[in-house]
Amino acid sequence: MTVLHFTGIKGSGMSALAQIMHDMGESVQGSDIAQHFFTEERLRERGITILPFDPENISQDMTIVAGNAFNDEHPELVKARESGATIIRYHQFLGDLMKQYVSVAITGAHGKTSTTGLMAHVLNGYKPVSYLIGDGTGSGQEDSHFFVAEACEYRRHFLAYHPDYAIMTNIDFDHPDYFGSIDDVFKAFQEMAQQVKKCIIACGDDEYLQQIQAPVPVVYYGFGEENDFQARNIVKTTEGTTFDVVIRNEFFHTFTIPMYGDHAVLNALAVISLCQYESIPADIIQRQFVSYEGVKRRFTETVIDDRVLIDDYAHHPTEIRATLQSASQKYPERELIAIFQPHTFSRTQTFLQEFADCLQEADHVYLCDIFGSAREEAGTLTIRDLQEKIEGSQLLQLEDIEKLAIHNNAVYLFMGAGDVTKFQQAYEEVLTTPKKA
């Protein structure tokens, strides 16, 4: 059996893909840096070997799946070329795999991961599903009917996919280290639209998605009356959200989701739209909604005494607003404490004022140092540039994490795409460690 070796196996997509291939009976191993990432936990649960980066990991009879964070000069990839091993990039491997199933690619500037997780869970109540979620979770079933995959627009990697269905949640300017403008982002989505085989399901409330041209039907969902699938009579409570779905002005069904915020309704509408296209009964959709437990690092709650700690991947102003809205719906009487770690210098620079504006919707703001990335490790900007724009905000270091404890009966939102979880873990230790007499 050919060994699949994943160079950069702790990457969120790479980890999920490795899990899928392992579940499908392939021999899987991988390599990465020693630092712990939450994405490796499910690899270890499956007994998948994780090695330190080393050219000696590579042999001629392997197929090397290369993570996109690493260029062709990575020592393992150099060794693979020299030895004659097969090398395939992550997005190309995934694109080939998806062709074997009824494939659903979920893309958009925001909401990809949450929608992918919800879609996979709902479809799995109807027929077997394999799925790849951007929180590092993957599952493979050899008898799968559907394959649901998060499709990232960064560097136009999603153009490796030719899915049966594409869900497009929104178009927004992000990844300023690659995209030159919002128009450049739109062009990438327009290119993606040309590759879809059956149908595009897009949020019609998004002005850019309204302009998408495609060789297949484009079905729109949203709050506006012009959408094919519209949410009406929305009732928000501390337990979740209930809404009616109207399809082309005819009542379809009333749904209840155990989720919060307008974005959660839109994500559910996207799933309902695809299910209706695939003739999946409404009662199956509702049953799966009720049992859905969410994805990693998306409004993940931990309760310690009178404090609620929420771990969330929000790293763009639009996402921060959505997270704060969700927290306000579920905990309307509590103070919201935002602990934010910006991710990448270029994104922080591009959205500096927007970050300041959305964070000020919280009651108190704490800022952690900017987290770089494998592709962008340093910049001239510092966290103080953001702090100066947010009145009353404080800088937070791990060694002074105890100062968060002054807030009682509060909701703490630990937000960011880097390693902001270490601040939450440190604070949890403060809250759970008995005080010395």
Largest sheet: 10 strands, mixed
What is the rounded distance between the termini? 61 Å
Give the strand order, joined by hyphens, for the main sheet: 8-7-9-6-10-11-12-13-14-15
Mean pLDDT, all residues: 92
Radius of gyration: 22 Å
The tally of strands reads: 21
Shape: globular
Low-confidence stretches: none
Q: Report the β-strand fraction as a percent range.
A: 15-25%
Quaternary structure type: single chain
- Count of helices? 13
The structure class reads alpha/beta
Binned, the helix content reads 25-40%
Commentary on this structure:
The chain is of the alpha/beta class and 437 residues long. The protein is built from 13 helices and 21 strands. It has a ten-stranded mixed sheet with strand order 8-7-9-6-10-11-12-13-14-15. Strands 16-17-21-18-19-20 form a six-stranded mixed sheet, sandwiched between helices. A five-stranded parallel sheet has the order 3-2-1-4-5, with helices on both faces. α3 (75-83) links the parallel β4 (63-66) and β5 (86-89). α5 (112-123) crosses α8 and α9 (317-330) packs parallel to α11 (352-359). The radius of gyration is 22 Å and the shape is globular. The protein starts with a strand and ends in a 5-residue tail after the last helix.
Produce a short descriptive summary.
The protein has 437 residues and is of the alpha/beta class.
What keyword list fits this structure?
single chain, 437 residues, 10-stranded mixed sheet, 13 helices, 24% strand
Give the helix/strand layout:
Layout lengths: L2 E5 L4 H12 L3 E6 L8 H5 L3 E4 L10 E4 L8 H9 L2 E4 H9 L3 E6 L4 H12 L5 E5 L3 E3 L6 E5 L14 E4 L13 H12 L5 E5 L14 E5 L6 E8 L4 E7 L2 E8 L4 H16 L4 H9 L9 E5 L2 E6 L4 H14 L5 E5 L4 H6 L1 H8 L4 E4 L15 H5 L6 E2 L15 E5 L5 H12 L5
